[in-house]
Design brief:
34% helix; alpha+beta; 3 helices; 44% strand; Alpha-D-Glucose-1,6-Bisphosphate, Chain A, domain 4; single chain; disordered N terminus
Length: 138
């Protein structure tokens, strides 16, 4: 019985460690959420990310997808793309937490019908660069 518990504990620890390693990238800034919201919009536009949707009440900004690799001919496309979701939350005492989530996916479009397949990734350099740019602009 103890052996089963130890094995279960190892499995849970391994899965939790993988989830943390593959998690989103967050940073807390000593700036109110309204200021972070405005600066994040400016930074995203400056870095070439078009904003698809934003909702200040919820604190989410979603970008349009951008091509990582592949071809795009309008009615036909095949390649890898990514999109960002930025979550801005009030952390109290004039602080805000910004979380950047990046979704990497494979897209194939035929006659305006997109077929997207999410791809796993452990590379967090894009998320970290966005947070660094926001921090620098604040």
């Amino acid at each position: 019985m103890k052996r089963h518990i130890v094995v279960l504990a190892l499995v849970v620890t391994t899965v939790a460690g993988s989830a943390i390693a593959a998690g989103d990238v967050s940073q807390t800034f000593a700036v109110p959420a309204d200021r972070v919201w405005a600066v994040t919009h400016v930074v995203l536009r400056h870095l070439g990310w078009d904003i698809d949707k934003d909702d200040r009440a919820i604190g989410w900004i979603t970008t349009d997808s951008r091509k990582v690799a592949g071809e795009d001919y309008g009615v036909y496309a095949k390649g890898t793309r990514h999109r960002l979701r930025i979550i801005i939350k009030n952390a109290g005492a004039g602080k805000s937490t910004v979380t950047v989530e990046r979704t990497l996916f494979k897209r194939e479009r035929i006659l305006f019908i997109d077929n997207d397949e999410v791809l796993p990734t452990n590379d967090r350099s894009v998320e970290q660069s966005i947070l660094a740019a926001i921090g620098k602009a604040l």
